[in-house]
């Protein structure tokens, strides 16, 4: 039993972290042969014969389309053109996206299994029996992105062509996709938060703060306000600070403001609680409160009751 690492072994931890972070975020494209051989090894290490048909596709979405073709007993001849035809049907809403997404829970994540494969890779130095069964997944992580594996067929995606991150390593791009594949399939994120494509492509000066406030997801709303800028947000909504209040929560001093936002002639003025993030200095988000509230403390207490947070205001 391993009870403690030596100093030499501890010194290797950053080496393994670096290795697997690079694997997880790699955009280096492998050959079709390397990808197919890696997937064969996944089957073999699992004690299963690999299928004769292993198809390399351009994105995880194309894996799902391939699985749809397989599940509906369609022929694989001219697979690429069939995939494109089905994608066009989805785009034109002639085919439900839900039908395509049915197999999404069956993915093997390839390079995105890096977080846990790194752990077991580190302990190979101790010659622990059984770790060789992960050789296939290690090979897949090195050469492939996501894949769907069946008895008689396998679909495996190439790695993304581009990945953009912020200084904290989170997926982030303010004017385009944070992660993009060869076929155009993309993920749109700000600071790790999934954001609708329309907001990413809209320049800050053209963003409508009233539409931002309609966004129900607090994290999305926070990112959109950060993008437009708090000063611009205030200016466009005619915001007025009504009251302020400070409180200490878990040894952190937080500042709260009650602001009044003008949401147009139909809605009028609505009070919002402006809150500083307890984990990220200088980051704020806002939430609407009851119309009768006129102090920041009342607004905070209103939010506590509504969110049932594990603390109360004095």
Can you walk me through this structure?
The protein is of the alpha+beta class and 314 residues long. The protein folds into three domains: 153 residues, no CATH class; 41 residues, no CATH class; 103 residues, no CATH class. Helix content is 38%, strand content 18%. It contains twelve helices and twelve strands. The strands form four sheets. Strands 9-10-11-12 form a four-stranded antiparallel beta sheet. Strand 2 and strand 3 form a beta hairpin. Helix 1 packs antiparallel against helix 6, helix 2 runs antiparallel to helix 7 and helix 3 crosses helix 4. The longest helix is centred in the first third of the chain and has 18 residues. The relative contact order is 0.10. The C terminus is likely disordered.
Question: Could you give the topology of this structure?
Answer:
Layout: H1 7-24, H2 32-45, E1 53-57, H3 60-71, H4 79-91, H5 97-100, H6 114-122, H7 135-143, E2 147-149, E3 153-157, E4 162-163, E5 179-180, E6 186-187, E7 189-190, E8 193-194, H8 197-201, H9 209-213, H10 218-228, H11 230-237, E9 240-249, E10 252-262, E11 269-276, E12 284-288, H12 296-307
Parallel strand pairs: 1-3
Antiparallel strand pairs: 2-3, 4-5, 5-6, 7-8, 9-10, 10-11, 11-12
Helix pairs in contact: 1-6, 2-7, 3-4, 10-11
């Amino acid at each position: 039993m391993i009870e403690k690492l030596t100093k030499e072994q501890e010194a290797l931890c950053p080496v393994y972290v670096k290795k697997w972070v690079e694997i997880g975020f790699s955009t280096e494209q492998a050959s079709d042969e390397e990808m197919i051989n890696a997937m064969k090894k996944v089957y073999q290490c699992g004690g299963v014969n690999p299928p004769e048909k292993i198809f390399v596709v351009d994105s995880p979405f194309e894996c799902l389309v391939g699985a749809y073709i397989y599940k509906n007993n369609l022929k694989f001849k001219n697979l690429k053109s069939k995939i494109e035809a089905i994608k066009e049907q989805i785009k034109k809403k002639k085919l439900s996206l839900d039908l395509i997404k049915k197999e999404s829970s069956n993915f093997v994540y390839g390079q995105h299994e890096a977080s846990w494969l790194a752990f077991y890779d580190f302990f190979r130095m101790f010659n622990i029996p059984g770790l060789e069964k992960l050789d296939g997944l290690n090979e897949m992580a090195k050469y492939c992105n996501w894949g769907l594996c069946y008895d008689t067929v396998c679909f495996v995606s190439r790695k993304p062509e581009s990945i953009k991150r912020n200084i904290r390593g989170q997926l982030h791009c303010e004017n385009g996709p944070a992660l993009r594949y060869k076929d155009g399939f993309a993920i749109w994120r700000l600071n790790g938060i999934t954001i609708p494509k329309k907001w990413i492509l809209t320049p800050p000066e053209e963003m409508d703060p009233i539409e931002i406030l309609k966004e129900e997801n607090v994290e999305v709303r926070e990112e959109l306000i950060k993008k437009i800028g708090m000063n611009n947000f205030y200016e466009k909504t005619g915001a007025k600070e009504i009251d302020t209040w400070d409180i200490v929560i878990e040894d952190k001093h937080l500042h709260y403001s009650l602001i009044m936002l003008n949401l147009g002639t139909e809605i009028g003025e609505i009070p919002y609680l402006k809150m500083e993030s307890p984990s990220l200095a200088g980051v704020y988000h806002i939430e609407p409160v009851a119309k009768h509230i006129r102090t920041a403390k009342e607004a905070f207490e209103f939010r506590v009751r509504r969110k049932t947070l594990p603390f109360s205001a004095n």
